Structure formats: C-alpha cells, structure tokens
C-alpha cells in the first residue's frame, strides 16, 4: 500500500451523493471492460451543481477539458456523509478512473465506504476536523496514511486523520478478494 | 441466557450460526438470496469471473436472482448490451430466477418483483446490488444494498462480512388518517433525523400504526431507510407477512422461514414515538430527502410535472390512492404513471373504483402510462419515459431527490405521497390532499 498520497485538492460540500459523483445515464458503461472503465473518469463528478463544484468559490471544472479522462486534482475533500445515495460501485470507480487516490471527509455513507475498500479503488480517510471551510480547491495536499497526518503544503496547516482501523489489512492487501486469499479464506 | 437482541441482531445471529451477536461485532454471514440487475449485474459478473474463473459456477443457482429493471425501454445500445450480459450469464449458469426483458417472465422493479415472486422471507439475509434492497426488511428479514465487488464475492462464496449495526427504533401509534400514507411517515422520520441520521444503523419500525399498514405500505417505510443512511430497515413479521409469504412462496419452492419478534429489553440507541393521528401530509423539497416541509407550508408552489411510480410509489396501493383523487377529473400538468412491475400493470386493469379501472381513471384524467420499470426515478438514458430533460419542477412519489436524480441537474424534485402528488397534478401547484380526501 502506498502510504504517502500527494496532489491538488478538489473541495466539495456535504452529502455529495452518488448521482453527483457519476450520474445514472453513464452507468451503462461496464467497468469490467477496460475501454469503458476510462469513460467513468471522463464523467466523474459531472453531476455536481456548478456552484458547489470546487469550493470555496465553486464553478471550477474537475477536468481541464471536456475530452479529458483524468483530472489534474488527486485528492477530493468532502464534508459529511460523502457518497450517500445509491449502491453503485461506479462511484468510487469513477473517482479512481479520474486519478483520485484518496478522499478525505468527515464521514462516509456506508455502501460507498465499503465499495472503496473492497475494490481498492481509493483510500477513504476520515478527518474529525471539518476541512471544507479551510482547504481551498487547488491547494497542494500531502496525506501520510502511516502517521495519520494531513498537511496542506500551500498554507502549512496540518491535521490528524482518523485511523483506518480494522479495514487496514484489507486496504494493505489490495481489496477484499486479495485479503480473503491472503488469510486463506479463498484459494489463491 | 444471551442478552435480549433486536430484530436485526436476531436475524444476523442466525445467519452467522451464533447464539448471539452484539452491535459492533464483525461477523461472517450466510446469504440466503443475492439479487442483481442490469446496472450492476454486468460489473458483478465481471468481478465474479475475474476472481473465481471464467468457468466458475455461482455458489447456489437457486439463490441468485437476476431482475433487469433499470434501463429497459430505451434505444440506448449500451443499456441493451447490459441486459444481453445478464441473459448470457443466466443461460450459462442455468439460473431458474432470471426475469428476462421481452419474455413472459419480465417483471420490472426488482424490489417489488422480489416479494411478488416469493424471494422475500422472514429471518433471512437478502443482499442486492441496489441501495433500495432495504425494502425487503418489511418481511422481517435483514436486507441491504451492496456494491459489485461485495456481490461478486457473495456470488462465488455465499458469504459476506458485516458489522452488526446498532438499532434505532421508530414507533408509530394510532389509526392512520385517510389523507396520510407510509410515505408521509418516512419523510417525517428522515426530516427529523437527516439524510445521515441512521448511517451504519438499523431502523426498526414498530407499533400498532405500523402493523395496521398493508405489506406494500410497510415496504415503502423500509425502502427509504437508506435515505437516512440506514444499513437496513426492518419490521417484525406478523400474520399479514406470513400469509403473504406463504402465498407468494409457491412461486419459489415454499422454502421454510423463521419469524423473529422484538425481545423485551433489547438495547437500542434511539427511540422516537409518533402519534400518526397528529401527523400531516409531508413533502421533501429539493434537493435532499431530509428537506422536510408540511404540505400545508409549501402549498401553491408551481409545478411543471407529476410522476407516480418507482419501488416506493408505484405499487397497487399507491395507484389506488392516486386514482381515488384523479377519478372523473383532469390533470393540469404533465402526469406520468409508471407501474413498478408487470403484475402491478395488470392490476391497473383489474382494480376498479366505482366500476372504472385504474388505468382508465388515469387515461381519462389525461395522464400518460408507461411500461413497468424504474423509468425516470433515477434519470437514465435521455429517452427514458418521464425523464426530466430540462430544469423543470416535478412532484414525485419516488424516493430520492438529490441534484440530477431524475435527469437534469437543475430540475427541482419534490417527494410526496401518491395522494399529495395526485392532488397536485390536478391543480398544477403543490396541493394538500386533505382538501380532496374525505
């Protein structure tokens, strides 16, 4: 597992639901097919209302151009209840396909959290501090998962992150299938 | 003696083969039914084959239920391709419970099709690749939504790991007034606790007000547990449940089941008691299911469209309620009616009010009736029946109104009961059904 994650922040609000992360009209792509997988990156976060896209100001496109599959932003910062709504695994897939390595939120909706970990798409980190009022879209962040620290390299601020706890071995193994094989639950 | 357990804990203990479980326990459970559909089925099958092999067989062909329902009546080639993936898999695995599009077995919305076809039983664990799988908690079972990777794992092993949730109790007392429906109750609950108020928790519904509801209304209550972030919603099975399950079980082999009752003294972390006689028609304003208002507070708000359908608002009980208001009158705004399943669609012809079929009541009122499916509840391809392709205002019996849920991300969606939606369709503005229901 990569324990240092760095890159530009893209800041969103509370209750970012899965229809904002990847609208239902794009769920016809099959993520199991590589050529279609990358389309999820193209349409990731296209459902976010413009005034909430890239806080604090909003109206910040997640991609540099309409035809880009990958975003220049690497870390999404959210508020409460990130990933609420549907069970679609396409949501963490879309963020990962766009190049997001990590989401930092106050807490997550249950199914989204589980999907992130099971598929090892990205690391869902919780921070007890509300970050969306202090971190700005475009700030350079550095997440140290081993130490549980978040540094805003642009401003010099730093915060403690919650421990990943019991799910650490699943993340370290690279998802629930790899974990199940590593502990002998499934035949390797 | 183990400590008293909540309904959810009793079901999970049985599934884990233990005498007792407690909130916070991580347990492995045996899954009784795995359901998937056209949106998440292809991804699930891909993960299953990647990890278990191209020639792998599902763990139990009697326990995998595949119900295409989301993007059915569309020209979208990708959507149709996804149904082909399900079709090929069902054939290859020789699955007995595949409700194929275009066949006499086609059903429509999975959460309504599951009980109709006898796949919901008290005391069981039902997992589905759809967040509204929690609907089946109405049958006294543990039912929750999962992602493709979880589902792929279950498909190969029949097992999954779960953390036993804490339980919140919602108790309803009193006789339901004729102008209220289960949708009003659950919108009130979600408004009270918020869209994250039950995150990671079980929502147990109890009280004489709940047991007086028919099975469809109980499904509406449990369906929206996820809109409060709940892991599951659950209602103890009573004779109404048992009669329904015994009758429908004939279609799926009459499997035995276990009825659990709430145990006195079971620890819960929250309880709220509602007197239904004092509740009012309730609505969720844009853009969140917890943006609660009394209908009386927002009446007169201008609307462009009314939509009656979905797992939470497209059952026969919902259409009877709406038709009772629309009978002999004409709608003033575009009104879309979408039966959840083909069985509900047939019910539109066989159920009558004053000698007129529900279908004719809707058609005479000027409503458009679509084919059984999820349709515009979640937007979908641009040619989906009833989809909000422009930023209009819609009042809907569906269950979720985050931005873009029904199509255009600037469209405004108000969630309400079928009675409130029908009353509003007649006037073109949000209207209180109490003025029309005697």
From TrEMBL, chain A:
It comes from the Bacteria. It catalyses: (2R,3S)-3-isopropylmalate = (2S)-2-isopropylmalate. It is an enzyme of class 4 (lyase). Residues 73-127 form the Aconitase A/isopropylmalate dehydratase small subunit swivel domain. Keywords: Lyase. InterPro entries: Aconitase/3IPM_dehydase_swvl, AconitaseA/IPMdHydase_ssu_swvl, IPMI_Swivel, LeuD, LeuD_type2/HacB/DmdB. Pfam families: Aconitase_C. PANTHER family: 3-ISOPROPYLMALATE DEHYDRATASE SMALL SUBUNIT 1, 3-ISOPROPYLMALATE DEHYDRATASE SMALL SUBUNIT 2-RELATED-RELATED. This is 3-isopropylmalate dehydratase.
Automatic annotation (TrEMBL), chain B:
Its cofactor is [4Fe-4S] cluster. Keywords: 4Fe-4S, Amino-acid biosynthesis, Branched-chain amino acid biosynthesis, Iron, Iron-sulfur, Leucine biosynthesis, Lyase, Metal-binding. The keyword Ion transport does not apply. The keyword Iron-sulfur applies. InterPro entries: Acnase/IPM_dHydase_lsu_aba_1/3 (IPR015931), Acoase/IPM_deHydtase_lsu_aba (IPR001030), Aconitase_4Fe-4S_BS (IPR018136), Aconitase_4Fe-4S_dom (IPR036008), HAcnase/IPMdehydase_lsu_prok (IPR011826), Homoacnase/IPMdehydase_lsu (IPR006251), IPM_dehydratase_rel_enz (IPR050067), IPMI_cat (IPR033941). Transmembrane segments: none annotated. Gene3D superfamilies: Aconitase, domain 3 (3.30.499.10). GO terms for molecular function: 3-isopropylmalate dehydratase activity; 4 iron, 4 sulfur cluster binding; metal ion binding. It comes from the Bacteria. Residues 31-298 form the Aconitase/3-isopropylmalate dehydratase large subunit alpha/beta/alpha domain. GO terms for biological process: L-leucine biosynthetic process. This is 3-isopropylmalate dehydratase large subunit. It comes from Limnoglobus roseus.
């Amino acid at each position: 597992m990569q324990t240092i994650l760095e890159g530009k922040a893209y800041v969103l609000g509370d209750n970012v639901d899965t229809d904002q992360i990847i609208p239902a009209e794009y769920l016809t792509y099959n993520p199991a097919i590589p050529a279609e997988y990358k389309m999820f990156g193209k349409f990731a976060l296209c459902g976010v209302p413009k005034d909430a896209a890239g806080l604090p100001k909003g109206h910040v496109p997640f991609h540099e151009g309409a035809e880009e599959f990958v975003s220049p932003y690497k870390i999404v910062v959210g508020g409460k209840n990130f990933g609420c709504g549907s069970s679609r695994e396409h949501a963490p897939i879309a963020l990962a396909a766009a190049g997001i390595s990590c989401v930092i939120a106050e807490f997550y909706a249950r199914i989204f959290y589980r999907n992130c970990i099971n598929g090892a798409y990205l690391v869902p980190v919780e921070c007890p501090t509300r970050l969306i009022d202090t971190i700005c879209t475009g700030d350079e962040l550095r997440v140290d998962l081993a130490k549980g620290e978040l540094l805003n390299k642009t401003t010099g601020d730093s915060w403690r992150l919650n421990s990943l706890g019991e799910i650490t071995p699943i993340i370290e193994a690279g998802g629930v299938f790899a974990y199940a094989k590593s502990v002998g639950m499934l035949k390797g | 003696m183990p400590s008293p357990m909540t309904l959810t804990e009793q079901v999970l203990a049985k599934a884990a083969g233990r005498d007792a479980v407690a909130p916070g326990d991580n347990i492995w459970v045996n899954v009784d039914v795995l359901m998937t559909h056209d949106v998440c089925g292809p991804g699930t099958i891909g993960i299953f084959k990647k990890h278990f092999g191209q020639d792998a067989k599902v763990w139990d062909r009697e326990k995998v239920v595949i119900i295409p329902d989301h993007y059915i009546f569309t020209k979208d080639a990708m959507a149709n391709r996804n149904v082909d993936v399900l079709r090929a898999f069902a054939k290859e695995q020789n699955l007995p419970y595949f409700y194929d599009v275009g066949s006499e077995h086609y059903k429509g919305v999975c959460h309504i099709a599951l009980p109709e076809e006898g796949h919901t039983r008290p005391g069981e664990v039902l997992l589905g690749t759809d967040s509204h799988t929690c609907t089946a908690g109405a049958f006294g079972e543990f039912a929750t939504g999962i992602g493709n990777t979880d589902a792929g794992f279950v498909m190969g092993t029949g097992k999954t790991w779960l953390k036993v949730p804490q339980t919140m109790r919602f108790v309803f007392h009193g006789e339901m007034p004729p102008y209220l429906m289960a949708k009003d109750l659950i919108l009130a609950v979600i408004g009270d606790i918020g869209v994250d108020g039950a995150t990671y928790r079980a929502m147990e519904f109890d009280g004489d007000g709940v047991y007086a509801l028919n099975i469809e209304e109980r499904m509406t209550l449990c369906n929206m547990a996820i809109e409060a972030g709940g892991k599951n919603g659950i209602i103890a099975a009573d004779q109404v449940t048992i009669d329904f399950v015994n009758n429908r079980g004939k279609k799926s082999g009459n499997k035995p089941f276990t009825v659990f009752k709430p145990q006195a003294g079971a620890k819960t972390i929250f309880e709220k008691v509602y007197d239904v006689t004092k509740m009012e028609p309730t609505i969720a304003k844009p853009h969140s299911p917890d943006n609660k208002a009394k209908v009386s507070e927002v009446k007169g708000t201008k609307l462009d469209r009314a939509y009656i359908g979905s797992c939470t608002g497209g059952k026969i009980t919902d259409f009877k309620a709406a038709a009772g208001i629309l009978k002999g009158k004409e709608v003033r705004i575009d009104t879309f009616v979408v039966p959840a399943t083909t069985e509900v669609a047939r019910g539109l012809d066989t159920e009558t009010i004053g000698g007129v079929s529900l279908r004719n009541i809707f058609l005479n009122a000027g409503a458009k009736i679509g084919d059984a499916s999820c349709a515009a509840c979640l937007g979908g391809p641009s040619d989906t029946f009833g989809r909000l392709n422009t930023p209009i205002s819609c009042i809907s019996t569906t269950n979720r109104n985050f931005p873009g849920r029904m199509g255009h991300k600037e469209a405004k969606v108000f969630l309400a009961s079928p009675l409130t939606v029908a009353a509003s369709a007649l006037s073109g503005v949000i209207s209180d059904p109490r003025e029309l229901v005697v």
